[in-house]
Design goal:
single chain; 3 domains; eight-stranded antiparallel sheet; 40% helix; 23% strand; disordered N terminus
Length: 604
Amino acid sequence: MKRLCFLLILLTLMPALASAWWNDEWGFKKKITLDVQKLKQDGVTIPEDAFALIRLHTGNFANFLELAEQGKDIRVLADDEATPLKFFIEKLDPINEMALIWVKLPKDIAAAAEPGFWIYYGNAEAVDAQDAGGAYDVGEVLNYQFDSSGVKDLTANANNPSEATTTNAEGGLIAGAAVFQGSQIIRVPEAPSLQMSPATGWTVSTWLKIDQPQQNSVIFQRASKTGGITLAVKEQTAYLEVTDAVGVKQEFAAQAIIAPGVWHNVVVVDTADNLTLYIDGAVSGTFPVALAELSGDITIGADAVGGRGFTGSIDQFAVYKVARDANAIKFDVEMQGAGSALLTYGEDTSPDSEEGGESYIMATLDSVTIDGWVIIGILGVMFVISWMVMIVKAIVINRVHSANKKFEQAFSKLGTQDLTSLNTEGTEQDEEEEEESPLLFALSSEHGTFSNSSIYRIYHVGVDEMNKRLRKNTVNNVQQTLSAGAMSAVRASMDAVVVRELQKLNSQMVLLTIAISGGPFLGLLGTVVGVMITFAAIAVSGEVNVNSIAPGIAAALTATVAGLAVAIPALFGYNYLGSQIKVITADMHVFVDEFVAKLAEDHT
């Protein structure tokens, strides 16, 4: 039993735990998910050493001004919102509203039902938590991204170049790129961490773009005492120049073409007895060759003596001391490519919006135009007035109905000889009470037992009219009968009171009918004007897309929602109050008939 109770408590708390905010010092978060279905369609799974490239821009991120300086407040957490993930920022430009962030994905993310992670931001006091060196696996021994800081190895191995004459410029595949003009070179000195052994395999990966066909340009070259390898481009074809372990030179051409003006991914993988060349994630040639261990200097963009210079741009140059498989290579191509659509960006939320679900509502209200607010303001006044009328009328009608029932019970017990016994003396106070509003009667209890009863007021007038006529007809203290004309006069006086009571009960009900019929039309007016303004703005700007239309349309529909919010409660209230007034009306007419009938029995 205890275990069952514990389980029930845990299940109750699970939704709260799942939506718990990671740290209250951070003001915003955003969910980012991987499109697993697209990967499956392409026959790709998420590799264990995968990075996700987050591309933030105005289309998917609206809070660049909330970021702390240099993005030091950015934190990336796994889907459980508890496990921090390694990440680093390649570029952050709040002025132009663009950011590029690399995130090392968890090794078990592929097993998740909906692979994804969270970005937290919005804490000006936070300390920078980037860790590029710690993000890379030990198998990746060199990574140049050619950002604004120059040619620098981002891995923990610090394999920085001894010579770099290239120019880093904007316009790379991802942020910046190294620009080669035929005489530039990047030379990386040999280091223990850069050992490339056929026993474990190795991988060289890069993105390149040529502006025109190449004569015979070196992309990557490395040699050792007993062999070497060169990745080059001749015309529009990538090929490998290989000197194997026994000194035999061979040349292997790729099957795919390197088209000018387009970024292409080129990868070379060595696995013991084979070299495989990948172009844009697809195998472009597998060549049977056994290389010796490579341990000399690495050159990029030219050969060892600076010849055969490359003309074009290189980005994302990486060296691995392991042989990467085809799946990992294709995943990187799909993630890093210019048209990548593997990531889906969720809404930016804050603790308040997450708890109250107000993010969409507030975003819609922010887009409401001035004319829309005018309409909503008028509807707000109508909303308040209609609710005041309904509340006051409900109080009055319920108390009148209750008092009538009480008076009818007392009146039903009277005989014909006691017809006037319930009437109080006709004092000035009684006359004043007849003129007072039903609201005062309903809220005060100082006017007698039946002061709230509309039927009592009819009875009071009927008794007074009867007594006046009986006094005129009294001779020698002997009560005389009433004529048919006198009876009709008494009924007419009582009917007049019935009409006045109905006027009091129905007073201000017209305000509810105005709210019912006018509210939706005012809301529709606001919506039509809002839609007109939205399309007029689109016509002026020339930008036609969902992101430009949706906020204006949603804001315009807010006026219709406001109109319905006024009309619907007023409609229900009007129908309820109208039915209660009909009941009271029927009771008053029935009482007049009963009173006149008893009067006729006694005085005719």
